[in-house]
Design goal:
five-stranded mixed β-sheet; alpha/beta; 2 domains; Transcription Regulator spoIIAA
């Protein structure tokens, strides 16, 4: 268990992906520490997952920090995946306002309103982001001899169908993706 002063959290790394699991309360005494961890999550990883499953309470300032970090990550095109959000904070978690405390451009507010309608207890958007990440990694792995077999198995199996459904790809667009990979030079049967 890591701790920056008083904020207990667990950090797991896999390559340049960081999973930050928080424990206990996120309150005024944790604001500075939380800010440092969120900066680390956004700027020192390619993909960061924030797991709030074991968080019991989030004060308004820490909720605003999480919200600002999420909006900033979208603006930087490195969206944070926030999982296991306590239900009572869900409606405020993905709000990006154009007020002085957030960094979200106005168009992000519209995206967030659309996404908020799709969220079911904080899991849908996280699952969607994770499915996108898995699909992108599998595409990249097609050209890596060390991971080509697993990637090919992904695209030929149920995992691709499940991820496609979460991402919102219909059969026509799945076929187009496969065609795009072939045009990019991937040989399925070589």
């Amino acid at each position: 268990m890591n701790s920056i002063k008083n904020l207990p959290y667990k950090l797991e790394r896999s390559g340049n992906i960081g999973i930050f699991a928080f424990n206990g309360e996120l309150n005024s005494e944790h604001e500075r520490d939380l800010t440092l961890i969120l900066m680390k999550a956004i700027y020192n990883t390619d993909r960061a997952v924030l797991n709030l499953k074991k968080v019991t309470e989030i004060n308004s300032n820490c909720l605003q920090l999480l919200n600002t970090a999420y909006c900033t990550s979208i603006r930087l095109k490195k969206p944070l995946i926030i999982t296991e959000i306590p239900k009572k904070y869900l409606s405020d978690m993905y709000k990006c306002s154009s007020g002085k405390r957030t960094n979200c451009p106005p168009h992000i507010e519209n995206i967030q309103e659309e996404n908020k309608r799709e969220i079911h207890h904080g899991t849908f958007m996280s699952a969607r982001n994770l499915a996108e990440a898995v699909m992108l990694q599998s595409i990249e792995d097609l050209w890596d001899p060390a991971h080509r077999k697993e990637s090919k198995d992904f695209f030929c199996g149920d995992a691709f169908n499940i991820c496609s459904e979460l991402v919102g790809l219909d059969s026509k667009n799945k076929f187009r993706l496969i065609q795009l990979l072939e045009k990019a030079g991937y040989k399925w049967f070589s």
